[in-house]
Amino acid sequence: MKTISTYLLIGLALLAAVSCTNSEFKKTKSGLQYKIISDGKGQLAKKGDFMKVNIVQKIRDSVMASTYGSFPYYIPVDSPRPVYSPTEIFTMLRKGDSAVTVMSADSIQRKSGGQLPPSIKRKDKFVITFKVIDIFTDPDAAKTDKDLEAAKEKDREIKAVEKYLADNNIHATKTEAGAYVVVNDPGTGPQVDTGKYVYVHYTGKLLPSGKVFESNMTGPGNDPLKFVIGRHAVIPGWDDGLKAFKEGGKGTLYIPAFLAYNDRPGPGHTPYEDLIFDVVVDSVKVAPPPSAMRPGMPQGMRPGSMPIRPTGPQPRPH
Fold first, then answer.
1. Amino acid 219: pLDDT
2. What is the 3-state secondary structure (H, E, C) of the chain?
């Protein structure tokens, strides 16, 4: 989890400033409201370019997501089409510009023909602010820059986990892949390893808040999660960190976001979330061959599925 930066506060201030001046907004052909703040001097985006942007997404005065203080978006620029999307204004933006777009929930529903989630009301407004950091005409240059930002993000995550451990006087061992493990009881049975079929009870928490988002330790529905190590049935931090235990082992995994959900929204509903898992390895067995993994078997064993529910330690694409 990241501290709100000065840039995010600036973004929120921009949201507040424009929220009361709808008369200054323009409309695209699809009806999308937008406002661009520009000095007219930067490079103008055109079809085929890639824009590097920071984004704040907001609904009902609540920030849903922000890239400030973490990883920016790299968005391809295409010819504008009336699709009721912020992409309609991309070719109007210049390097250094800021922009605000407003979409109504009822218009999104009407134009898409779908149903709104129960938490979204028809009169809700989605407000998205953009800050154009850079514009790349060369895809290779965009990829190089993105790789550099990814390395910075990984470093931020590692430092955040290490700070949490230091602040709480937790002595953890770092694995080769980058997870941090505290072994309270190593266990005495078979060793967890690639290809082993394991049964695990766990409690998942957000780092650094420690807020529990999921547990199968106690209560109804507390069957262990069952999966095969190394078949990408769970997040990489589990495949990696659980190898510190044998059957009967108990401990805690501290997992940076790059070994969890990375840029996908995690159990806290935001990207780049660092996570904590208290784990108990109940059983370690020889795994059946992949062909024996029938559809009726536990979800956590099937690559691409979601163990227990979407907020669990599901796999992420590689």
1. 76
2. CCCCCHHHHHHHHHHHHHHCCHHHCEECCCCCEEEEECCCCCCECCCCCEEEEEEEEEECCEEEEECCCCCCEEEECCCCCCCCCHHHHHHHCECCCEEEEEEEHHHHHHHHCCCCCCCCCCCCEEEEEEEEEEEECCHHHHHHHHHHHHHHHHHHHHHHHHHHHHHCCCCCEECCCCCEEEEEECCCCCECCCCEEEEEEEEEEEECCCCEEEECCCCCCCCCEEEECCCCCCCHHHHHHHHHCECCCEEEEEECHHHCCCCCCCCCCCCCCEEEEEEEEEEEEECCCHHHCCCCCCHHHCCCCCCCCCCCCCCCCC
pTM: 0.73
Q: Give the Å distances, CA to CA, from 58 to 101, 197, 211, 252.
A: 11, 43, 23, 34
Q: What is the CATH number of domain 161-301?
A: 3.10.50.40
Rounded CA-CA distance 224/22 in Å is 53
pLDDT tens profile 122-134? 889 999 999 999 9
Q: How many CB atoms lie within 10 A of CB 57?
A: 14
In whole angstroms, give the CA distance from residue 275 to residue 241.
13
Nearest residue to 264 (alpha-carbon basis) of 235, 223, 293: 235
d(CA 160, CA 144): 25
Query: Nearest CA to 161 among 242, 254, 75?
Result: 254
The CATH 3.10.50.40 portion of the chain extends over: 6-147, 161-301
pLDDT given for residue 313 in this prediction? 62
pLDDT band at 143 (very low <50, low <70, confident <90, very high): very high
Statement: 6-147 belongs to CATH 3.10.50.40:
yes
